[in-house]
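Field log, afternoon session.

UNIT: design team B
ACTIVITY: writing a sequence onto a fixed backbone
BACKBONE:
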């Protein structure tokens, strides 16, 4: 019997179109253990980075596939997907429809996974909202029918000691309005402070200027808004993180502070990754 996951923040999706090779290399260079490439029955390809009960997924398209997954091409590069767990997709879909949200009919898909030299299929059931209803990102509920194939032993052991997502940062001109829309999707009260705690990972909605200041980025009025601007990731040791970095990061590309190491958006497909030791977003 699979363990309950109802309501947990499941994963964040980094959509790289035809740049999955570059994304895999970048995450590995930052000291992550990256799962082997997966080939979805939907026509996309992916890699995952397990982070406690959630994960970061890079997803994109196989140049050899003549029928690319259109929804990915129609979505912008960057962190364009936020996914929560459900143990009953039919019930999740019914709630979304009852709330008047444009939810897709539940559907299943899979991808081959190798375990001890044997190929098995990781399977998922999802319902998703129509693109554009929540402007910062695509929204899904996902039921992992075979969670043991996603969180395999060893996938969570990262040389950089990352072990959780501490916060998701959303930049919006009207943070309260975007937060209220996400709250409707999740079935929770709209927050008064732009912070949604549902699922164990805070989703922080702030103005572009405030997000840039929080993440230590220069404010760019040309940047797309609203958008998911970055993630704060927890590590057990910043020293171990530094030791795990590939030589490409030896120069000035990273920002280093006493309690954080930050990968600027310009070096990471438009997404800021802030590593912090201990708790806090």
């Amino acid at each position: 019997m699979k363990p309950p996951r109802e309501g947990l923040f499941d994963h964040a999706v980094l959509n790289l179109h035809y740049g999955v090779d570059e994304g895999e290399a970048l995450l590995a260079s930052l000291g992550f253990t990256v799962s082997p490439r997966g080939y979805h029955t939907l026509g996309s390809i992916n890699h995952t980075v397990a982070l406690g009960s959630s994960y970061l997924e890079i997803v994109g398209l196989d140049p050899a596939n003549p029928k690319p997954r259109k929804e990915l091409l129609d979505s912008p590069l960057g962190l364009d997907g936020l996914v929560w767990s459900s143990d009953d997709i039919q019930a999740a879909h019914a709630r979304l429809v009852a709330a008047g949200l444009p939810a897709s009919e539940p559907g299943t898909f899979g991808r081959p996974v190798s375990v001890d030299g044997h190929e098995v299929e990781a399977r998922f059931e999802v319902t998703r909202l129509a693109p554009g209803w929540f402007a910062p990102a695509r929204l899904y509920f996902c039921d992992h029918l075979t969670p043991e194939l996603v969180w395999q032993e060893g996938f969570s052991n990262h040389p950089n000691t990352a072990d959780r997502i501490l916060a998701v940062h959303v930049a919006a001109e009207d943070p309260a309005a975007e937060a209220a829309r996400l709250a409707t999707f999740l079935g929770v009260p709209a927050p008064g402070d732009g912070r949604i705690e549902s699922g164990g990972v805070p989703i922080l909605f702030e103005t572009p200027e405030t997000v840039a200041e929080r993440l230590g980025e220069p404010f760019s009025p040309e940047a797309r808004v609203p958008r998911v601007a970055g993630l704060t990731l927890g590590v057990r040791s910043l020293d171990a993180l530094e030791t795990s970095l590939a030589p490409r990061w030896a120069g000035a590309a990273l920002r280093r502070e006493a309690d954080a190491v930050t990968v600027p958006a310009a070096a990471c497909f438009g997404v800021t990754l802030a590593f912090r030791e201990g708790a806090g977003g």
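LOG NOTE: DSSP finds seven helices and 15 strands in the chain.
NEXT ACTIVITY: expression trials, pending approval
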